# Entry
Amino acid sequence: MQRDVVLEIVTRTDTGKVRSKNEDSVLANVTQGIVVLADGMGGYNAGEVASGMATSMLVKWLEDFVAKRDMGGTLPAISASTHTALSAGIAKTNQAIFAAAQSQAQYAGMGTTLVIGLFQGNQLTVAHIGDSRAYGLRDGELIQITRDHSWLEEKIASGLLTREQAQLSRNKNLVTRAVGIDANVSAEIHDFEVMSDDIYLFCSDGLNDMVSDKEIGMTLTSLSANLDLCASQLIQLANDKGGRDNVSVILVKVKKLNSNLGSGPLSWWRRLLVRFR
# Structure
């Protein structure tokens, strides 16, 4: 089957300069337009187990979903069916991690953040839980397209903290949602229109806690022609600034979009500018 969108995908994950092990996990399927990034938490090897379970289970789930769709399976409209598939896959993954944490003492308290991207034609569907992020770069402008599920973000939203004050807070890593911590969890899911030459970044907080959005945007813009180098440079920037956490990135470039799909100018991009600023 001819794909409506041609993507270039690069993944990187690094332990950082302080942690002794890497509890992040990244996985992608470029043919089917699937990317999943998870940032685990928990004692011993529990965080590593949780993030690994999340990425492997969800990529397999979405591969099956995309294969069924491509074979002409009976599916409703893309948005509705994709949201349903993501919600079901995340629920199943959450139950598996929660059950392992409850039944095995060495995994007690383990959980993971999660950010997923599914590219279908001229549409990107993003699902996330916790503070792992997705960004979009178009025409040199970087936009954060997820909102952190964190204590800090709640304080900012309620007007109790400014973003400048939040940058100085010691509570940067207190998430209000995570996969596997409770029996049920709710993901936030949104759809975005993609255009040729867009670049999307999915990352753990080990990147954005150490590197400013301005620096991230400048790096993506200056190295947009070489995603491998760009991903390595983002990791290096985080480590040069102390590398206090594991750092992981997935970069996706929209190389080619079927011209028959059409797209409105930058309407959704402008709406994001209003929403996030």
Summary: Residues 78-103 form the longest helix (26 residues).
